[in-house]
Specification:
The chain has 7 helices and 10 strands. The chain has helices at residues 3-24, 31-34, 38-45, 82-95, 110-118, 151-161, 176-181; strands spanning 58-61, 69-73, 79-80, 99-104, 107-108, 124-129, 145-148, 170-171, 188-195, 199-207. A 4-stranded mixed β-sheet has the order 1-2-4-6, covered by helices on one side. Strands 7-9-10-8 form a 4-stranded mixed β-sheet. A two-stranded parallel ribbon has the order 3-5. Strand 1 and strand 2 (69-73) form a beta hairpin. The longest helix has 22 residues, at 3-24. This is DNA-directed RNA polymerases I, II, and III subunit RPABC1. Residues 135-207 form the RNA polymerase subunit H/Rpb5 C-terminal domain.
Length: 208
C-alpha cells in the first residue's frame, strides 16, 4: 500500500469514527456516514487519490435542539497555526455556532491553542489528533457502555443515595472515554457493566 492509499485509509477510519462520536453525543448523523465504506469515501473525498480535507468538514445539530450545532474541521497543515485557529473561530462566531471540533494531523501550536482559549466565551473548540480517532474506543469489548447524565438526572441520583458529588468515584476530563463523550467538569457518567448474577450493574463517576 503506497503513501496515498495509507492516508486515504487513515482518513476514512477517522471520518467514520468522528461521525459515530457525534451520534453518541446526541447529534443527528446519518447511518450512511457512520458506516461509509472505503470505496465510497475514496470516491467522495479522494479524487486523483489525494484527499481534500476541506471537503470533509461537516455541520451537525442536536436531535433535541436544532439550534445547538457543531462544526467539525479537518485542517490540512501538519501543525495547526494561529491563522487557521483564528479563521475557524471567526467562522463559527459569524455563523452563530457555539461548538467545534478540530481534527489535526500532528500538532497544534501553543499560539493556536491560546486563540481557542481566548475565544472560549463565544465558542468551545475541542481538539483531537487523527491518531485518536482511528478506532472507536467505545466499541472495544473491554469498554463498558457509558451514558452521560443530564443535570436533572445527576441531582436525582445524589438525592436518591443521599450523596454529595465529591463522594462519587472520579473520571478525569482527559480520560479517552471522557474526551470521546465531551464530558465537562462536574458532569456525571453512568457506566453499565454486564453481570453474570444481576444481568448488569451500574456505577457512576464524576468528571474532574
Amino acid at each position: 500500500m503506497d503513501a496515498d492509499q495509507q492516508e486515504i485509509t487513515r482518513l476514512w477510519k477517522v471520518y467514520r469514527t468522528i461521525h459515530q462520536l457525534c451520534h453518541d453525543r446526541g447529534y443527528l448523523v446519518t447511518q450512511a456516514d457512520m458506516e461509509m465504506d472505503y470505496e465510497q469515501f475514496r470516491t467522495q473525498f479522494a479524487r486523483n487519490n489525494v484527499v481534500d480535507r476541506s471537503t470533509m468538514m461537516f455541520l451537525v445539530q442536536k436531535r433535541d435542539d436544532p439550534t445547538e450545532q457543531l462544526t467539525v474541521f479537518f485542517p490540512d497543515e501538519k501543525s495547526v497555526g494561529i491563522k487557521t485557529a483564528r479563521k475557524y473561530c471567526e467562522r463559527m462566531i459569524a455563523q452563530g455556532i457555539r461548538r467545534g471540533i478540530v481534527i489535526y494531523i500532528k500538532s497544534i501550536t501553543s499560539s493556536a491553542q491560546k486563540v481557542f482559549a481566548a475565544s472560549s466565551r463565544k465558542v468551545e473548540v475541542e481538539m483531537f489528533q487523527e491518531a485518536e480517532l482511528l478506532v472507536n474506543i467505545t466499541h472495544h469489548q473491554l469498554v463498558p457502555r457509558h451514558v452521560v447524565l443530564s443535570s436533572e438526572e445527576k441531582q436525582t441520583l445524589l438525592q436518591r443515595y443521599r450523596l454529595k458529588e465529591t463522594q462519587l468515584p472520579r473520571i478525569q476530563i482527559n480520560d479517552p472515554v471522557a474526551k470521546y463523550y465531551g464530558l465537562k467538569r462536574g458532569q456525571v457518567v453512568q457506566i453499565i457493566r454486564a453481570s453474570e448474577t444481576a444481568g448488569r450493574y451500574l456505577t457512576y463517576r464524576l468528571c474532574l
